[in-house]
Amino acid sequence: MTNTPESxxxxxxxxxxxxxxxxxxxxxxxPLLQLRAITKSFGAVQALKHVDLEVPAGKVTAxxxxxxxxxxxxxxxxxxxxxxxxxEILWNGNVVHIHSPHDAEQLGIATVYQDLALCDNLDVVENxxxxxxxMRHRTLDEIKMELAAKQVLADLSVTTVKSVRQKVAxxxxxxxxxxxxxxxxxxxxxxxxxxxPTAALGVSQTAQVLELIHTLAGRGIAVLLxxxxxNDVFAVADRIAVMHLGTLVSSGPVSDYDxxxxxxxITTGESARSVSTMAPSS
Length: 282
Ligand SMILES: Nc1ncnc2c1ncn2[C@@H]1O[C@H](COP(=O)(O)OP(=O)(O)O)[C@@H](O)[C@H]1O
Ligand SMILES: [Mg+2]
Prior knowledge:
Helix 5 runs parallel beside helix 6. The N and C termini lie far apart (43 Å). Helices cover 29% and strands 24% of the residues. It has a six-stranded mixed β-sheet, sandwiched between helices. The protein has a four-stranded antiparallel β-sheet with strand order 2-1-4-5, covered by helices on one side. Strands 7-8 form a two-stranded antiparallel ribbon. Mean pLDDT is 83; it is low at 1-25 and 278-282. The protein has helices at residues 71-78, 101-107, 124-129, 142-155, 173-186, 203-218, 230-236, 259-268; strands spanning 33-42, 45-55, 60-65, 86-91, 94-96, 109-112, 135-136, 139-140, 191-195, 222-226, 239-244, 247-253. The chain has a domain at 55-81 and 108-268: P-loop containing nucleotide triphosphate hydrolases (Rossmann fold), CATH 3.40.50. Bound molecules: adenosine-5'-diphosphate and magnesium ion. The site of adenosine-5'-diphosphate (ADP) has 11 residues, from strand 2 and helix 1.
């Protein structure tokens, strides 16, 4: 759980190498993640069209848009599953090349997909360490892993999981989501991407997960939340970014939006109300 992220050679430049002024942006003032003119084509289909997006640390950025808008494609580009056709990804103001999920993880990007990728037949500890088992003398250090799992859940104020030796199959949807998020955070993630985390949840479980998202941001983590649920978005987001047919049509602080302007932007890509737009900065 104390993995110190090291920059593999594919990530350029390495941490601390700021002399080159790659982007002309001071890393101290740069957002944690910045996408510049990201385009992704699948044959004739342009799933992403020159997307500019900033995801700052310590804030919840909600990415909203109708089915087919390009949300999943965008987060897969951030997570290293798809390589953009063109455009740049900047991390703390430095251009990086994320060619694989491993590259993303090394930077501190954790993605919690809708299916959660948890194993029902394993317990909470086993799931949280799956693929990252703590090896001591070639045996699993069970006690250390159990303590670490408990600590992360406690840090995130996840109080409803009674035993970390419980099989994941026995957990509620909200608890499963919490375990998946805790697993992501345990890797010392700096950015947590959540794909529709409350889609399958009831009212009180949704409240639990929204509280957890709020806790993550409070700990300085950047959260990128993909959601269809505008109630959730307005409850927890600091910033909103709206996609429509592959284009990022609007982004800004949540106070610039209301339910009606958000719905207009989602359905038509435009809003009669005055909202922040992604006009090129001068
Ligand atoms: N692997 C793929 N191959 C071809 N087209 C794709 C692929 N993935 C997504 N698309 C297309 O890209 C567009 C955006 O899809 P997606 O990112 O899944 O949208 P969203 O997540 O917002 O519903 C859609 O038109 C979809 O059909
Ligand atoms: Mg999707």
